[in-house]
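Readers outside the structure-tokenisation community will struggle with the description of the input data as it stands. For illustration, here is how one protein appears when written out as sequence plus structure tokens:
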Amino acid sequence: MSEEQAENVLTLREAQTLCRAALRLLRNWGLSNDDIQALMGQLPEASRLDFENEQQQPNEDMIVRANLLLSIHRQLRVLFADKVQGYQWVKKTNLTFNGCSALDVMLRSGVGGIVEVKEYLEAEVSR
């Protein structure tokens, strides 16, 4: 493993913290457990406890999804001074997504949809 790769490896504690933050974000968005499950990937039943147990280990897919979702949150915080507006934006229809909400796009297309929403928001922030 190169030094650069070693720097990009999360410790178990960091991975748990990242996933815990993403799960908290999804709850703040007011999502159902089914929607949370779909956005975070296949969570083992124990993982629904927010990774409080030190033995619970998020898999690579969960870590990628959590990172992308938190990136979306960061972009929304830049765009909306009121964080509640950002939370609500996720469920509002958007002409950019052909009248669907960002949540619809993410649920329909999985990681690809999450990336699509993230890239859209990054473009909006850079305007």
